[in-house]
Amino acid sequence: MIIDGLLLFSSAQNLTTGSEVSTNVIDLLNARDMGIGDDPALKIACFVTTAFASTDAATLTISAQGSTDNSTYTIYAESRAYSAADLTVNTKLFAIDWPHRSVDALPRYLRLGYTLGSLHFTPGALTSMLVLDRQDATQYPPGLGISN
Question: What 3 state SS string does the chain have?
């Protein structure tokens, strides 16, 4: 996976409670649709860099957002609610292609939103970015035998 610093949303961004947005906003310089389904398509790569923990049922939801003015953002896609058990180090989250937009609302600015449920996590961190070649290979345990 090739990482471009200009396409980085968050770099080990700490999240604990409430709603936060990615540290960085990607400015496309003019409005355009980055999710037109090209091959390869831009993909969201979001990884847990510091594990989250919770003594209650806290959740984390990630959303892909875009804006025409860097002020008012629209949610284009949203992940499922991840629990603390899902948020261990190196876990890949929200593995989707960047969502397609209609012509009437093409965004210039892109960011991710992080919404933590009403309960609290101990600090955890995410690194997220846009990439062309997210590492999507399934990792199997050593010695696994598969019958055909």
Answer: CCCCHHHEEEEEEEECCCEEECCCCEECCCCCCCCCCCCCCCEEEEEEEECCECCCCCEEEEEEEEECCCCCCEEEEECCCEEHHHCCCCCEECCCECCCCCHHHCCCEEEEEEEECCCCCECEEEEEEEECCCCCCCCCCCCCCCCC
Task: Please give the model's pTM, rounded to 2 decimal places.
Answer: 0.84
In terms of Cα–Cα distance, which of 115, 118, 58 is closest to 86? 58
Nearest one of 115, 123, 3, 136 to 64, comparing CA atoms: 115
Question: 74-108, pLDDT tens digit by residue?
Answer: 999 999 999 888 998 988 899 888 888 766 678 99
